[in-house]
């Protein structure tokens, strides 16, 4: 409005000027002739009209120029808006491409479906690589997902999904599907339920191939079962202690060896299974374990009933990557019977040694393999006149005057197990020859077959 008024002001000013000039001319024209006045008025009118037209043109030009400027401003704003929109569209295109690349890069099937009809509205390209079915099949085939669930899992999976969708809960489940080539593929389906007005409208999720994981779990379970059977049926006790020397595992054999149940043993320290005499020894062994020293040794435990349990302990310290001690694995072999047999044998040997040493007849223990005397008693030393050191260097040829017959008797006794010769001529250290009665028999002594000669002087 202001722009229009400014132009009109120019027009009225021009008219005013013309009117003023006309008045002045009229006043001075009284002195002119009539014809001149008329001519002058015509010229003045033309000039006034010209001024009016020029003023109008100026106003129109002013209005046009301002309108052009307005249109240029509007055009610039439109160009800027078009540029901004183009930039937004470019960014949206890049974002969409990035999103699609990201979705297709995910090692799983990204999907979206209608919560009511269960019809897929989006499925990522990974679906075809994972299960072998073209992506379009997921959209076109009715009940595609349902039909390809493993028959043994189908009912349970469908019920589980329906319950969670209706309760609008996010859920996670594992099940088997049948791939296009007939393979069984384990999937983990992580699902989010999208709600609108407190009702489920969409479901979105990711299906991840966990077949390798399931196969590993199956193999691990089989391995654990195999080792569990080995541990449970092992003839050795298996005992695991923690860093505080408390029992954290014991197999059935170990518990039976000590007379406890497995439940009773758990949490008990190693020292609860030793007597006072072996407390210090057990503590020393545990200290060596803390140094991560692997060793084997004989050790005496105390059973629940107070009796002794002799064992061979194969101790393997358990240390972490930093070398810190965290426990001990012990393989325990019961050698109580062997220890008892050794004790009985030692007692028997002591008794035999006592009888051997105090026997009135001379006795020689002869090694069949080496042909040397292994031992002689005191009666032999007195009868033949040798010292013990000298006697252990002798052979039958050194004491017999009938060497050939003596070795013949030795061969016979080693085969038949015994021999009895009523008279045989022997000689003492000083050369004295005297008759003896000889009885020979074989037996096992210190894990070797030996002959015992019993000699009676006649």
Automatic annotation (TrEMBL):
UniProt KW Phosphoprotein keyword: yes
SUPFAM superfamilies assigned to the protein according to its UniProt record, in alphabetical order: PYP-like sensor domain (PAS domain)
Keyword S-adenosyl-L-methionine assigned: no
Pfam families found in the cross-reference section: PAS_3, PAS_9
GO molecular function terms attached to this record: protein histidine kinase activity
Ranges in a coiled coil: 68-95
Catalysed reactions, as listed in the record: ATP + protein L-histidine = ADP + protein N-phospho-L-histidine
SMART domains in the record: PAC (SM00086), PAS (SM00091)
TM ranges: 37-61
PANTHER family: PAC DOMAIN-CONTAINING PROTEIN, PHYTOCHROME-LIKE PROTEIN CPH1
This protein's name: histidine kinase
Source organism per UniProt: Aerosakkonema funiforme FACHB-1375
Taxon lineage: Bacteria, Bacillati, Cyanobacteriota, Cyanophyceae, Oscillatoriophycideae
